[in-house]
Amino acid sequence: MTVSYELTHLQGLEAEAVHIVREVAATFERPVLLFSGGKDSVVMLHLATKAFWPAPVPFPVLHIDTGHNFDEVLSFRDLAVERAGVRLIVGRVQDDIDSGAVADDPVAGRNRLQTTTLLRTIGEHRFDAVFGGARRDEEKARAKERVFSFRDRYGQWDPRGQRPELWNLYNGRHKPGEHIRVFPLSNWTELDIWRYIRDEGIELPPLYYAHRRPVVARDGMLLAVTRFLPLLAGEEPVSSLVRFRTVGDATCTGCVESAAATPDDVVAEVAATRVTERGATRADDRISAAGMEDRKREGYF
Amino acid sequence: MKSLRIATAGSVDDGKSTLVGRLLYDSKATFTDQLAAVEQASRDRGEELNLALLTDGLRAEREQGITIDVAYRYFATPKRSFVIADTPGHIQYTRNMVTGASTADLALILVDASLGLTEQSRRHAFLASLLGVPHVVLCVNKMDLVGYTAERFEQISADFERFAARLDVHDLSVIPVSALHGDNVVHRSAAMPWYEGLPLLHHLEQVHVASDRNLIDARFPVQYVVRSPSFRGYAGTLAGGVMRPGDEVVALPSGFTTTVRAIWAPGGVRLDEAFAPQAVTLQLADDLDVGRGDLLCRPGNRPHVGSDLDAMLCWFGERSGLSVGGRYVLRHTTAETRVRVTALEYRLDVNTLHRDPDATDLTLNQIGRARLHAQRPVLFDAYRRNRATGGFILVDEVSNETVAAGMITGPSVRSSSVSWHSSGVSRSDRSSSGATVWLTGLPASGKSSVAVELERRLVAAGRPAYLLDGDNLRHGLTSDLGFGPADRSENVRRVGEVAKLFADAGVVAVVSLVSPYRADRDAVRALHRAADLPFVEVFVDTPVEVCAERDPKGLYARGEPGLTGVSAPYEPPQAAELVLRPADGDPVTTAGLIAELLTG
Known about the structure:
The complex is a heterodimer. By secondary structure, chain A is of the alpha/beta class. Chain A has helices at 9-27, 39-51, 71-84, 93-99, 114-125, 190-200, 263-272, 277-281, 291-298; strands at residues 31-34, 61-65, 88-92, 129-131, 148-151, 179-182, 211-218, 221-224, 238-244, 254-257. In chain A, the strands form two sheets. Chain A has a six-stranded mixed beta sheet, with helices on both faces. In chain A, strands 7-8-10-9 form a four-stranded antiparallel β-barrel. Chain B has four domains: 4-211, P-loop containing nucleotide triphosphate hydrolases (Rossmann fold); 219-297, Translation factors (Elongation Factor Tu (Ef-tu), domain 3); 304-411, Elongation Factor Tu (Ef-tu), domain 3 (Beta Barrel), CATH 2.40.30.10; 427-599, P-loop containing nucleotide triphosphate hydrolases (Rossmann fold), CATH 3.40.50.300. Chain B contains 16 helices and 30 strands. In chain B, strands 7, 8, 9, 11, 12, 13, 15 and 16 form an eight-stranded antiparallel beta sheet that branches. Chain B is elongated. The chains are: A alpha/beta, B alpha+beta.
């Protein structure tokens, strides 16, 4: 009898991610999981729940709240956190606007402002490891990042000074005030995420599936009309059948026209798409070719 | 279906980024927005479509037209999904090639057909072999520059095969390509009808990688203990082999045996068996004291357990090199321990494969073979047998940088097959006869003052002597030891060994060491007796009140924890050759008493 002892592609990715999540729990004092309610962070929370079964997830989750959230995402966030039995910490961008640490800019949106709130919250709670759901396939600067990404006392990333990362040995050593960003989904692609969501029956905010809503076309993207998005002169909302590929700040996250209403539909759609997730739906990544790299250097995810 | 992990390598301007870009482009793995951005960027630079821009993502990379760091790329064909670690060829970034190769199934090495094999091609082939990458593909690129001639291709193939024959490369393929024009990358080239092999992508889809893991030796490094009110399990990733419920296992290093009660996949799916590299949680039949860093395996199939390792090291540290005596943190499986470099066997010239045994250090990007001594035993296999239990990293304790990658070649020769090399000189051939004088007593009892005087007096009289002072030795010989009972014993053992060598060499070793445990001192005495060397134990018997009053180092005043004679035990000798009390006089007088004993 021949047994192949082969993991499928997704099983291999899951095993690698679980190993990383456990490694952090075993070697850091105060880890936290960034949780926005978006699909990648939902997959992260799902993996964490599985990794420590039957014990509860041994770290809290952190939401950096721009104040411009989709209502569906906030209610999903609270439900998911309650089901997983984890503690939710919220860092509010509004608090930093109120304190004068950052200035709100209705045109640029609040995405970039999140960095200040994130670093403040990490400092206040003395988190030493911060899990993120970032994937290397998302963006060119992310493709260069390690699984354990060292951040200095200012939360900054230095692409030239990264620690070599070999085998599955991750060097998380750091001094007080420094921290490590950890990306267990580094080797996953958007399609892998969706296949995993489908296979595992993971629930997501309904925004990810086709629904009808008022939208406006702006800068080659479809933006949802919400109370956070002042319409410009001449803009006329239309009702479209759309879904979101990413979920973030409501003012800069676009949606795509789609009739994909189930995970199976979405898997088929993503497998056939010719446009990247960020290219299709993130206004802030279009500012410059190095937009993400510049923000990451400042401390962004 | 398993995905294939690829590491690319080649010199600067060999066209690696272009090849990867071509692979993505021709296999339709690029997205329209990415492509639009690359088209725009190419136009801005006044170029035609520059596929290298698909992968070079950082500012400095685009500015300088080089690749700085490993970039990971993902694409899939209907047959297989691929992870490409696109690693820079620039010499100062060799560490990134090693990073990419550490997890690769296949190394893709590029050569510029117009230039032929370079130092970098050889270096990368060697690194792929050293890192145990099972498959190597040599892409002879820029065939368009050499007229697509079979002769040039065959010449480079032959050169490379000659070099690779000296390496540990099991599966080598050579493919002529032009990344710029797309020949033999995804599509077969019409320009090279003489080439009968597969285009690169088809080769990558077909290469068989199933057997590249060790499925024989069951190895389970315990990563994390999962506890809930009704559950205790050991979570970890199988580093080798297969495990099933009912298997008898031994926990190392403790040596307790038990059986596997149940195996759980993440999330609580019960498994009939688990294999490498699955991440699972094991329940054992008995409640053992097992924790992170321990390893479960079969009683009849254990890894090596030892403190002395021989390993190949790739040095990454930019600020400091490796030198003998250096101390680092060793990170291996889920265990961490301190190590000291005890020897550098040789430094390797990766171009000629010449070994330089006279080398005394390794600097950035250099490779050599070293011997390490670990503070705690390491549970390991040779890297060739298992990458997961044979690979490690060294971390600098001060900067926290990862300074080296290591591949264990095996247990240190010193511990596995020790043989005694006889000297060609007998003791009677030496011009002087040696001995060991061992001064023991409480801290601040006056041992060192007597020892210093004794050494001075002996040397002045023409007798070779050398002072081995406990405090001084803690700067080097015993710098890795603490002050707990086990470390104190080890301290005495080492100093005793050194003293014996001095005595054997014809020197009087004057040892000044608290050495609180009688058994330890007796062991040193026995060591000398076995070697037929004189051993003089001198007990400097100063009452603790007097010591506390002298207290030159302020140990007593500070209330130093674990201070011998105060909060830690001191066992006075029962049969010392000489006992010195304060009333016996000053160090000059008492050193004289000892000197008399040596000549008498």
